[in-house]
């Protein structure tokens, strides 16, 4: 068993050795934690991509307006 979460190895070993019922519940909880962490990471990446797209759009809009007004941007 590989410990991928910040849970002490002693706790994992105790749960897995103690009782099969606890083991099953613990596995479900750990799976849920992993899924939530992955979703949070995906959401953060999505928000970062959305911010980048907005920044590019804003830059293009500013350059277009400046071109329409005949302003020298650079």
Described by strand count, sense and barrel closure, the largest sheet is:
none
Q: CA-to-CA gap between the ends?
A: 59 Å
Oligomer state equals single chain
| Integer-rounded radius of gyration | 25 Å
Number of distinct helices: 2
Decide which structural class fits the backbone. mainly alpha
The residue fraction in helices comes out at: over 70%
Strand content: under 5%
Shape: rod-shaped
What's the average pLDDT?
85
The low-confidence parts are: none
The count of strands amounts to: 0
The SSE order reads: HH
In short:
This protein is 80% helix and 0% strand. It is mainly α and 74 residues long. The model has no long low-confidence stretch (mean pLDDT 85).
Q: Can you describe this structure?
A:
The chain is mostly helical and 74 residues long. The chain has helices at residues 9-18, 20-68. It is rod-shaped, with a radius of gyration of 25 Å. The relative contact order is 0.06.
Protein topology:
Layout lengths: L8 H10 L1 H49 L6
Give descriptors for this structure.
74 residues; rod-shaped
């Amino acid at each position: 068993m590989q410990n991928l979460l910040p849970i002490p190895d002693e706790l994992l070993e105790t749960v897995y050795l103690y009782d099969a019922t606890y083991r099953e519940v613990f596995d479900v909880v750990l799976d849920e934690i992993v899924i939530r962490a992955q979703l949070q990471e995906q959401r953060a990446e999505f928000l970062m991509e959305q911010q980048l797209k907005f920044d590019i759009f804003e830059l293009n809009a500013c350059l277009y307006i400046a071109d329409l007004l005949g302003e020298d941007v650079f």
